[in-house]
Amino acid sequence: MPVIAYREALRQALAEEMRRNPDTFLMGEEVGYYQGAYKVSQGLLEEFGPERVIDAPIAETGFAGIGIGAAMVGLKPIIEFMTWNFSLVCYDQIVNHAAKIRYMSAGQYKCPVVFRGPTGAAHMLSAQHSQSLEAIYAHIPGLKVIVPATPYDAKGLLKTAIRDEDPVIFMESEVLYGTTGEVPEEEYTIPFGKADVKRPGKDVSLITWGKQVFTTLKAAELLAKDGIDAEVIDLRSIRPLDMEAILASVHKTNRVVIVQEGWPFSGVAAEVCFRIQEEAFDYLDAPVRRVTNLDVPMPYAHNLEEAVLPSPERVAEAARAVCYR
Amino acid sequence: MSENLEQDIGYCKGLYRQMLVIRRMEERAARAYSQGKIGGFCHLYIGQEAVGVGAISALEPRDHVIAAYREHGQYVARGGSARECLAELYGKSGGCSSGRGGSMHLYDAKRHFHGGWGIVGAHIPMAAGFAFASKYRKDGGVTICFFGEGSVNQGAWHEGLALAALWKLPVIFLCENNYYAMGTPLERTTSTPDTSQKALGYNMARDSFDGADVLQVRRRVAEAVKRAREESLPTLIEVQTYRFRGHSMSDPAKYRTKEEVEEKKQRDPILLMARHLEELGMPSAELDAIEREVKVEIDEAERFAEQSPLPDVAGVEHYVTVSDDRAKGIL
Question: Rounded to 5 degrees, what are φ and ψ at A34?
C-alpha cells in the first residue's frame, strides 16, 4: 500500500472529488498560484483551472460568505482558511448563516460548504496563530466538526466532508501535513461519527483527536513500561460524536483520561466528560481526568510553549492517577 | 421597450396592485402586532414599496434576490403571497418558513428569494456568492442585494463589494437609503452622504436616484441588471426612500418630526402611481375596485394566518442538518 504524506492525502481527496463533481470548487488565500500556503493544493490550479481553484484576497468574511451563498444555490464550495485562527473574523458568517439557514427556512435550503484549514499550535507561532477552536464550532447546532490525525483518516474524511450536504468544519494541522502513513489507492471514504481505536488496551481509555493522538500514543508507550495497558481512542469526528465507541472503551477499562489541545474551560473534553459520566457513571472506577493546554494564551518561547501544551509525560501522569498508581 | 411598459396600463396596474398588497399587508401586520398576535421584531416596509417592487420587476426567474430584515415587501414583490407572509409573522406552520423564521427570516427558495437576514450588513457576501454561482454555471442570472444605508459601515459589506468588483460578479447592490439607521440620521452614521460614492473605492459602476416613482426604479435598476447580465459587472445603487413608520414596531420614532413625515407622505409611491394610472386613463372606479380586491386578499390572508396551526413541537429538532433529517425520515 502506498505510504504518502497527510498533505498529499488531502490533495488526493480534493482532486478526486473535484473530478467527480464539477460543482466543486476550492477558494482561499494562496490556494492557486502559490500552490497552497502549506502545499495542500499543489497542482490543483494546473489541473482544474482558475475558475475552480480561486485565489482569494485576504477577506475571510467576504469569501466565507461567498461560499455560503454559492452552497445555498447548489454549488459545493471548499473554503480554505490559511489557519483556523483567521476564521474568527468570519465566525458570524459561519454561525449565523451557514449553521442556521436550513433551520430558519424550515428545510428549504441546505448549505453543503466545507471550511477547511490547519488548527492548533505549530511551533512558536505565538498566541494569535496557535489556537484550537474545535469547541466554539462544536458548540453550534447545524455544523459538523471533523479533526483527522492520520493521512488515511484525512483522505477518507475529507472525501466524506465534500460529499456531505451540511456545513463541515474540517480541521487539519500544520504539524501533521508532513507526517506519512498508508493510504489505499482504491476509492474509500470514512463516515462521520465514527471514532477509531488507534491502540487497543484494557487498563485505561485515553480519548483524544488531532495531533494529540501522537502525544497520547507516546504516553501509552511510557505507560506500557509501568505495566499499564492504555487504549487510545481517536475521535476523528467531534460533532457528531461517537458515544458508542467511547462507551465500549469505558465499559472495558473503567478509567478515562481525555487529551485535548486547547483551553480547558468549556473545551470538547468537558463535553465528552459530561457524556461519559451521564451514560457510564457506574462503570467509572475513578473520576474522569483531562490533559489540556494551560489556561493561557500561547506564549512564544519554546520552553513556555512546551509547558502549555499536553505532553506524553502529563498524559501518563494523569493515566497513572486514574489507575491509582 | 421600457418606455412602452411605462405607458402600458395593464403593466402599470400590476405594479400598483403589488405595492398596494404590500401596503395593506403591512398595515394589517402593524395592527396584529399591537394585538399581540405577532411577537419579536417587526420592521415594516410602508413607504418603501416602490423600491422593492420596481427593482424586482426588472428581474427574471433565474435571478436571485436577498434582503435584510425589512424584507416583507421584497418577499411579496418576488411572488410570495401575503397569506404566507402574514402566517410567518404570526409564527404559524402555514408561514413561508413554517413558523421557524419569523419576520426577519422569510424564505422562498423556489422563487429564488433567499431571505430574510438579521445581522446588519452580513448578508452582502452571500449575495456575491449567488452571483458567483450564476457566473460559475454560466446561467446568465443576476443577483439583487437589498440593504439599508445603516449597513454600509459594516466590514462584511465592504468585503462583499470588494470581491464582487475584483471578480466581476453579476450583482446589484441596492441601498435603500431611508435616512434613518434605526434612530440615527444619515449625517451621524457616515462621512459619505451619497452612499453610491463608495463604489468609487471599488472601481465599481454606480447610480443614485429617488425611489418614490416605481417606474423610475424599474428603469434604472434595469440598466444595472443589463450591466450585470451582459457584462458580468456589479453596480452599487443608492435609492432614496422613506419609511412612514418607525424602524420597527417598538420604535416611537422621536428622532424625526411629524411635519417631516407628513411632507414625505406627499410623495407616497402608491399615490404617485395612482396618479400615473389616472393619466393613462384608468377611471377612479377601477382604482376603487383594485382597493376592494386587495382588501379581500388581505382579509383572506389574515384569516389564513389566524387559522393556521402553530408548528408541531414534535418537530422542533427537524431541519438542523440534512443528515439528521434523512435519519429521521423527514427528507
Answer: -75, -10
Of A73, A75, A107, the CB nearest to B64: A73
pLDDT in tens, B46-81: 999 999 999 999 999 999 999 999 999 999 999 999
Q: In angstroms, rounded to a whole number, what is the distance separating the alpha carbons of residues B48 and B217? A: 11
> In a mutagenesis test of the B interface, which of A105, A109, A160, A239 is the best target, namely the one with the most B β-carbons within 10 Å?
A105
User: Which residue from A149, A154, A168 is spatially nearest to A208, judged by alpha carbons?
Assistant: A149
Cell digits of residue A56: 482569494
**Alpha helices (runs of H) in B90-213, residue ranges in sequence order:** 124-137, 155-166
Chain B residues 127-186 within an 8 A CB cutoff of chain A: 127-130, 132-133, 136-137, 155-156, 159-160, 162-163, 166-167
**Segment B6-55, tens digit of pLDDT:** 999 999 999 999 999 999 999 999 999 999 999 999 999 999 999 999 99
| Residue type (1 letter), A25 | F
Is A129 a known active-site residue?
Answer: yes
Residues 6+ apart with CB under 8 A from A212: A259, A260, A261, A310
DSSP letter at B10?
H
Specify the pLDDT at position B1: 53
Three-state secondary structure string covering A99-144: CCHHHHCCCCCCCCCEEEEECCCCCCCCHHHCCCCHHHHHCCCCCE
Quick check: bond before A210 cis, omega within 30? no
Phi-psi region of B116 (alpha: psi -120 to 50; beta: other; left: phi over 0): left
Angstrom distances, CA of residue B8 to CA of A281, B2, B14: 76, 10, 10
Among B62, B65, B75, B132, most A C-beta atoms within 10 A, so best to mutate, is B132
d(CA A125, CA A155): 26
| Distance, CA of A170 to CA of A9 (rounded, Å) | 14
| Helical spans, DSSP H, in B169-283 | 214-231, 258-265, 269-279
pTM: 0.98
CB contact under 8 A, A108 and B100: no
